[in-house]
Design goal:
The chain is an alpha+beta fold. It has four domains: 132 residues, no CATH class; 59 residues, no CATH class; 152 residues, no CATH class; 85 residues, no CATH class. The protein is built from 16 helices and eight strands. The structure holds heme C (5 copies). The site of one heme C has 24 residues, from helix 6, helix 7 and helix 8.
């Protein structure tokens, strides 16, 4: 007799005879209900904890699949060992010609198909949710908390805080996603066994060439003209005097629809490509630059005084050679405080707050918590001894300043990852410490016919006023006739 119940019993009998199948079946029976319940809770958004999601999608999910694989392997091995002799072609032919039996078999096939489809659908949901979860900024930024904290904190404070990590870090195609999951496993391993570098190393070659990534959202070939820029700073005097630098930045364009490429975004035109050779991994020491025009001609600039024998690696210039810190922006202590004072997080009315906060946050601290406590203690002590009347009457002002200074520190310094004030990640967008643009625009890269990559101060910006009291710029703006 070919009964449904009979089949299940036979199956159970086989499972009990094969250790692999038995282990698989027990694992599955235990794990599957938990998986089902957890996925249900997660899809409802019940628990907002990355470890919970990780537990479901990277542990429970794969273990359930492993259980099924064990089960299948056990069964297949049985089949090889003689089961095939029982369920032969003749056997099925005989069963199917009997109408009563074939009705039963059909029902069995329908039921099995229904349950298997339901199960596959469920697996699809688990796999998809697992994929989305491991792609989320929350997972990337918080799962390996200490390791990613610097990047996550700077990301959240950046103009890209609404862009997901994967939009920049992972090429959006099957190849990119697969590669990312594999490197992700490697990183998980490095985190687990504590073998990662502190700080993490850049440049990340996997991000290059970046034009496709950034140009999903930005089209610099369509930029044009100059941009009026203000830089607000505060002096370390009693009044925390507000100063400003104002300039026109020659943003320019990569050239489009008949417009010639010009200004700062001239570098990334369709009409030419720039290559450079650097002798160090950080790509700071540039000894050769080649400008290749679309018509095949090229201009080569050599660093003067460098022998041809020096080993160098060639790179194609793209967005990241200037925008290497579009998101993970680590500021110097001075600039970090200027931002906080300008935003009102640190009250400028508090005498000498710029000077004192700068002294407090610039010291080296062992960890984030002791930095927090000591910054507060130092500022309180200083105001107690120098402005006793103030710290009593205007306590809230001082408390606000303390919290602003602590933030300036904690948004830029991560002692656990060995990231101290700007020592690790420098921005190339200007020419701080003679890097950035000045890696090439330093007057020492010269072509055979004597052309120099210029460091003329008016090449990239027109400085309208430099470090003047902010009031005078406000007055200047107000005096412009409308
Ligand atoms: C707007 C694009 C963008 C976004 C969004 C972004 N990154 Fe980055 N990330 C970069 C660039 C550019 C670099 C530096 C690349 C270089 O110089 O090689 C970088 C570098 C890193 C590094 C290497 C260490 C370092 O600071 O240089 C890590 C780790 C990192 N990002 C993690 C993240 C995480 C986690 C998120 C989301 C919370 C994220 N990134 C979001 C563009 C982005
Ligand atoms: C998924 C879309 C997206 C991607 C990809 C992206 N950006 Fe952005 N970018 C934005 C948004 C949104 C803003 C904020 C615009 C605003 O605030 O006006 C922004 C702002 C900027 C700014 C202006 C920052 C400022 O201070 O005003 C720069 C520069 C920039 N992005 C460069 C880059 C670079 C370089 C890349 C590639 C590594 C990149 N972006 C990738 C969406 C994106
Ligand atoms: C030669 C250096 C350089 C290259 C290459 C470069 N940029 Fe810029 N870009 C700048 C500078 C300098 C600014 C203005 C400073 C700022 O906004 O911080 C700027 C400004 C921007 C802005 C803000 C524009 C605005 O009006 O506020 C965006 C967006 C941007 N770049 C995107 C890109 C993208 C995308 C690429 C690559 C396709 C790219 N840039 C290549 C130097 C460069
Ligand atoms: C890898 C080398 C390199 C780097 C880095 C670089 N440039 Fe250039 N830049 C060049 C070369 C080469 C030229 C063309 C010089 C010439 O035509 O003689 C150029 C030309 C320019 C021009 C003139 C474009 C025109 O209108 O013809 C501007 C403006 C400019 N760069 C701005 C910048 C800024 C701003 C930065 C930094 C954010 C920067 N460059 C970084 C190589 C570089
Ligand atoms: C190759 C392009 C380029 C050249 C050449 C250049 N600059 Fe700049 N400069 C920049 C860019 C880009 C910035 C950054 C703007 C920003 O912060 O967004 C900048 C910023 C500045 C600032 C404001 C920075 C601050 O934080 O106070 C000053 C001042 C300045 N430049 C002066 C000069 C002087 C003086 C020269 C001539 C020796 C010069 N620059 C040559 C591109 C250039």
């Amino acid at each position: 007799m070919f009964k449904q119940g009979g089949v299940i019993l036979t199956l159970l009998g086989i499972i009990f005879r094969r250790p692999a199948a038995l282990v698989g079946a027990i694992m599955f029976a235990l794990l599957f209900p938990i998986l089902l319940l957890s996925v249900f809770i997660d899809l409802q958004g019940g628990i907002e904890n990355p470890y919970f999601s990780l537990f479901i999608y990277l542990i429970l999910g794969p273990l359930s699949i492993l259980a099924l694989v064990l089960l299948a392997v056990g069964l297949i091995r049985v089949n090889r060992q003689g089961l095939g002799e029982h369920y032969t072609y003749e056997f099925f032919k005989e069963q199917l010609t009997n109408p009563e039996q074939s009705r039963r078999i059909r029902r069995l096939v329908y039921n099995a198909t229904f349950f298997i489809s339901l199960f596959l659908l469920f697996l699809g949901v688990v796999a998809y949710s697992g994929h989305s979860f491991t792609d989320s900024s929350r997972f990337c930024g918080t799962f390996c908390h200490t390791v990613m904290e610097p990047e996550y904190v700077t990301f959240k404070n950046s103009p890209h805080s609404q862009v997901s990590c994967v939009a920049c870090h992972i090429e959006q195609n099957a190849q990119g996603v697969t590669k990312a999951k594999f490197t992700g496993m490697k990183q998980l391993y490095a985190t687990f066994f504590n073998t990662y570098e502190r700080p993490l190393q850049t440049p990340l070659q996997s991000l290059r060439p970046t034009r496709q990534i950034c140009e999903q959202c930005h089209r610099p070939e369509k930029f044009h003209g100059h941009k009026l820029t203000f830089i607000d700073t505060f002096l370390p005097d009693e009044d925390n005097s507000h100063m400003q630098t104002t300039m026109l930045l020659k943003i320019g364009s990569g050239g489009y629809q008949g417009h010639a490429p010009h200004g700062i975004h001239w570098h990334i035109s369709e009409q030419h490509q720039l290559y450079y050779q650097a002798t160090d991994a950080k790509q700071q020491k540039i000894i050769r630059v080649e400008l290749k025009e679309a018509d095949g001609t090229s201009t080569i600039y050599h660093k003067q005084g460098v022998t041809a024998a020096e080993r160098a690696t060639e790179y194609m210039m793209d967005c990241l050679d200037c925008h290497n810190r579009p998101t993970h922006i680590f500021l110097a202590p001075d600039a970090a405080l200027d931002k906080k004072i300008h935003a009102g997080r640190i009250p400028a009315e508090l005498p000498y707050i710029k000077q004192q906060a700068l002294a407090a946050i610039s010291r080296p601290y062992a960890d984030a918590e002791s930095a927090r406590l000591q910054i507060a203690r130092q500022l309180r002590q200083w105001y107690d001894s120098h402005y006793p009347e103030l710290s009593a009457a205007q306590g809230p002002l001082l408390e606000k300043a303390i919290s602003g200074a602590q933030q300036a520190y904690s948004e830029n310094v991560f002692p656990e990852m060995n990231i101290h004030w700007q020592s690790s990640y420098q921005s190339y967008i200007g020419h701080q410490n003679d890097t950035g643009c000045f890696r090439c625009h330093n007057g020492t890269l010269v072509s055979d016919d004597g052309k120099v990559i210029s460091r003329d101060c008016d090449l990239c910006h027109v400085i309208l006023a430099e470090n003047v009291p902010a009031k005078s710029i406000t007055e200047m703006m107000q005096s412009i006739p409308r």
